[in-house]
Design goal:
By secondary structure, this protein is of the alpha/beta class. The chain has 5 helices and 9 strands; from the N terminus they run βαβααββαβαββββ. β8 and β9 form a beta hairpin.
Length: 200
């Protein structure tokens, strides 16, 4: 069985909203879109590309799917080639047919994704924070690929929102540090947190 890996660009306070551009996601009046670019460097970009090279299927929530489907089919280069050619899955209760070639619509993530995991080695979910919350609650996220950037906003959509199911993770490989101050972290799901232990 393959894994579902969530690939996320996040701030120190856990915000993943709109890293790519000012108008990417202005929901709830978020005014800080386009925050990732000042912190990209060659090593950071190379590691992001390694993750993209590894994926053999792409999983997206509806909002991220709409952004990607409007952008990537008109682009060229290695990222566009990868995204445009791999099988894609979008989770939506309302979408009928998907226009982006190679896309399958899933209406029930919890019920349908286990079968999808049987077909692929690494299914990567990029962004898609609402879907991430559902998959975390259903123990369907096997790996977190986090690129953490040295910035904080105090507002915005966060990876772990209030009410998310408690979970623990184990570091799957050594942390990577970059000249910009960003850090690359890879965590595998490890069960439930250990709590209730006194420090005395």
């Amino acid at each position: 069985m393959g894994i579902i890996a969530a690939d996320l660009f996040v701030t120190l306070d856990g915000v993943y909203q709109a890293p790519g551009g000012p108008e990417e996601d202005e929901e709830h009046g978020f005014p800080y879109g386009g925050w990732q670019a000042p912190y990209l460097d060659d090593d950071n970009g190379a590691d992001i590309m390694v993750g993209i090279d590894r994926l053999d299927a792409l999983l997206l929530g509806r909002k991220t799917y709409d952004i990607f489907a409007a952008y990537w089919p008109q682009q060229s280069g290695p990222i566009a080639e990868k995204f445009n050619t791999v099988p894609k899955f979008v989770v939506s209760r309302t979408l009928g047919d998907a226009d982006w070639s190679g896309t399958t619509v899933l209406h029930d993530a919890t019920g349908e994704l286990p079968a999808v995991k049987e077909r692929f080695d690494e299914i990567h979910m990029i962004g898609s924070g609402d879907l991430l919350q559902t998959l975390l609650d259903d123990d369907l996220v096997d790996r977190l690929n986090l690129f953490v950037y040295p910035i904080a906003f105090g507002t915005g959509k966060r990876v772990f929102r209030d009410g998310v199911k408690p979970a623990s993770f184990t570091l799957a490989q050594p942390a990577r540090t970059y000249s910009s101050g960003a850090i690359g972290l890879v965590y595998d799901r490890a069960g439930v947190p250990v709590t209730g232990i006194s420090m005395e």
